[in-house]
Amino acid sequence: MNITPISYNDSAIPGRYTLTQRVRDHDKNFPTRQTEVLASREEIAALVRDGYLIRECLLPSREIATLRAAMDETVAGDTNLETMGGKAFGGIFIRHLMDKHPAFLGLLKFAPTLSIARAVFGPYVQNRGLTGRVVYPDSPNTATEWHFHQRLIPDPMPPWLMRPQTLDVLLYLDDITDVSGPLCVVPGSHNWLEVDMPAHNHGDLPGQKIIKVPAGSVVLCHGALWHRALPTQPNAPVRRLLLWSYGPGWGKQAIYGVKPENGLTQQLLAERPDEETRELLGTAGFM
């Protein structure tokens, strides 16, 4: 299967460094993976501290147009679109996009995000699936409540608890402004392991930061970072968003949506791809 990689603007990446990681696996002769991390060491430290990192204008206009067209085409032909209902999340969600359109497979080895995942998780990571969210003009319940994605911390914490951690990627295909409904995060909240988040909260929180970015920008954030989307204003333009996450190679895939029985990723695996592709699709990198 031919996969066309998604290109990116080098100018959007202010620094980079080379990371060499040796794995203590004698069966594979202690393999070493060298990664060019498309971030500075200071940015990785800030991501770990604050829980998020912004890449403005990461995608060139031609790639934005390609992904918009693929999103619109896939939404139009999908019979498993999801609406969350209630007042928590508006718009529609479409799951398993890499199985439904070849344009999205170009994000599987997207170096600006994959290299950062390897910098924080180690050499073996997997892509946990690609989801799209579309909020149409004047649709109801366009805001999202405060939430985070890894709600599995018990109280009290067991001594051998392996804290669930993911790196979530939000790729905006349209400008995010006050009108279209910006993202709001609380820096450092991914470390609030002993703080309960109240349900159905749309109000302001101390220390929150509002993020507005142009189309083609990416926000990377820890899966436990507290965040929400502010409501769109009347007559706002369509807001298209791609979301995917990385986790350790041994982690579970996301549970949402109906995966096609013979999707593109299954076809790709049937072609006996390279070890990295198998790792990213969850069939290698954990034994």
Structure description:
- By secondary structure, the protein is an alpha+beta fold.
- It is 19% helix and 21% strand.
- It has one domain: Jelly Rolls.
- The model has no long low-confidence stretch (mean pLDDT 94).
Mean pLDDT: 94
Strand order of the largest sheet: 3-9-6-11-5-4
Share of residues in helices: 10-25%
**Oligomer classification:** single chain
| Shape annotation | globular
Order of helices and strands: EEHEHEHHEEEEEEEHH
Instruction: State the distance separating the first and last CA atoms.
Output: 26 Å
- Which spans of ≥5 residues are poorly predicted at pLDDT below 50? none
What is the domain total for the residues?
Answer: 1
Which range does the strand content fall in?
A: 15-25%
Query: What characterizes the major β-sheet?
Result: 6 strands, antiparallel
Find the count of extended strands (DSSP E, 2+ residues).
11
Task: Find the CATH topology.
Answer: Jelly Rolls
Strand pairing plus helix content: what structural class?
A: alpha+beta
Output the radius of gyration.
19 Å
Sequence-ordered SSE layout with sheet pairings:
Elements lengths: L16 E6 L9 E6 L3 H10 L1 E4 L5 H17 L14 E3 L7 H4 L5 H11 L3 E11 L31 E6 L10 E3 L23 E3 L6 E5 L4 E3 L9 E10 L15 H7 L4 H6 L7
Q: Summarize this, please?
A:
The chain is of the alpha+beta class. It is 19% helix and 21% strand.
Protein traits:
alpha+beta; 6 helices; 3-stranded antiparallel sheet; 287 residues; Jelly Rolls; 6-stranded antiparallel sheet; 19% helix
